[in-house]
Amino acid sequence: MPKVTVYIVSHNYGKYVQEAIESVLQQTFEDWELLLFDDNSSDNTTEIFELYRNDPRIKTYRTEGIGLPRVCNYALLEAKGEYLIRLDGDDYFDENIILVLTHKLEADKSLALVFPDYYLIDSSGGIFAQEKRARVYHNNHLMDVPAHGACTLIRKSVLKEIGGYREDLGAQDGFDLWTRTISKHRCTNVGLPLFYYRRHGKNLTEKHQRIFDARREIKKDAAQENLKNLGPITAIIPCREHYDVVPDLWNEQIDNNLTLLDISIQNCLRSALFESIVISSDTDKVLDVIDNYNDSRIKFVKRNTKLTIRSKPISESVYHALNEIEANKIGISVLTYIQAPFATTESIEEGIYSLALNDADSAFAVEEISHGLFKRSAYGLVPLNAKHMIHSDQDIIYGDARTSVATKNSNIFSGSLLGAKTVNYVTASKENFFIQSKFDLSIAKNLFSLNLIKEVN
Are 54 and 114 in a shared domain? Predict the structure, then answer.
């Protein structure tokens, strides 16, 4: 039996798949088998596979457009190797990847999987960057960034034990595999770039939203056990009469007579996670909105105007609200903002799941900053996020998306909003719009009137 099973999946990657196959044939480690899956391609993938049909180490399969997760499970059934590794049809291996990764698992039987760094290449094969990952258990203790879905070597016995790949998510990016594996087994990485990950139009945009939605579903399922010990969960919606871009910003009508406060309340009501939904405000006028909702979870807490000034930490208002409703100190509070009208229930819930899954003190939404950021020095501006040929997951600069914050109540009662261990979760850019000016308010109203909000909610 071969030590390693490599499988390549191609759906219309005929332009690249021969390079992928050849990169397996060139491996310095020779104890492998190769399974080739043509998932209903309409290009020349089939013809290219035919060139390798007579190699005894290679088997070819034709599937009828069943999608990547089901192909992965098919490969798991067919694999004869002790270890399994996927190579996507548009990427290719370094010649030493199987040698290095296999040695790692052979040397430490407690490890379930191992993954390497990689090069980023363009559609023509030119290298434009190298992706590095901080060393697991040494420089990375959060374990909240998954291994790449492909080019990760895993023990077949472990993959079978966790039930293979989920087929109900519509996407397979490795996050589900990572989440279910690290909950039971040790994993590691090697600091060598051992495969070439091709970035081109198709894989950059075609599946982005499906992968995004799948990750939220994976977090939801994986966090359920931890959540049992973290409740109750309280949503807190802060409002104020003054100090926003217009007086009573919460009462601004956005769409179909819905106010900004309505949108926040409805986002929270759609979630079954919240035991209480607290509207904290210095004005009784919010009761005109609150009284439209017949839900016992909704509570109004009157806060002093002194707590609403912009220089006051929001943690003081949260502390006040929790005291007023006599909240459990071991619970979770989730801050949602009326200034973020495009935030969704799913985004708010993801903060709770991220906190629970990573055993963190708090979690908040962020967006990755891709444009240049600079700070002033004695000799001019110094870039904070300059693009380098080699960059690590710990080099990424994030900005607070300000859609919501989930935090343990114990933080609030000790005087802190976030606590010591904070994790983040990246939200879609269309959810991160935050009203900071009258102009922003007019933009939000126009987007709603054009029905663009339906693309979000």
Answer: yes
Spell out the long-range contacts of 23-30 with Cβ–Cβ below 8 A and sequence spacing 24 or more: 23/87, 23/92, 23/93, 23/94, 23/95, 24/87, 24/93, 26/93, 26/95, 27/93, 27/95, 27/96, 27/97, 27/98, 27/99, 28/95, 28/96, 28/98, 28/99, 29/4, 29/96, 29/98, 29/99, 29/102
Full domain range(s) for residue 117: 4-222
User: What are 325-339's pLDDT values in tens digits?
Assistant: 988 888 999 999 999
Tens of pLDDT, residue by residue over 205-225, are 445 667 778 888 888 988 998
Residues 164 and 256 grouped into a single domain:
no
Q: Does 182 share its domain with 235?
A: no
Domain end marker among 205, 222, 239: 222
Q: Are the CB atoms for 152 and 176 separated by under 8 Å?
A: no
How many domains is the chain partitioned into structurally? 2
- Same domain, yes or no: 9 and 128: yes
CB 8 within 8 A of CB 68: no
| More confident call, 210 vs 26 | 26
Which of 181, 207, 222 represents a domain boundary (last residue)? 222
Its pTM stands at 0.80
Both 233 and 208 in a single domain? no
CA distances from 85 to 11, 34, 159, 174 (A): 18, 10, 11, 12
Considering the domain architecture, whether residues 372 and 443 belong to the same structural domain is answered as yes
The reply to whether 116 and 261 lie within a common domain is no
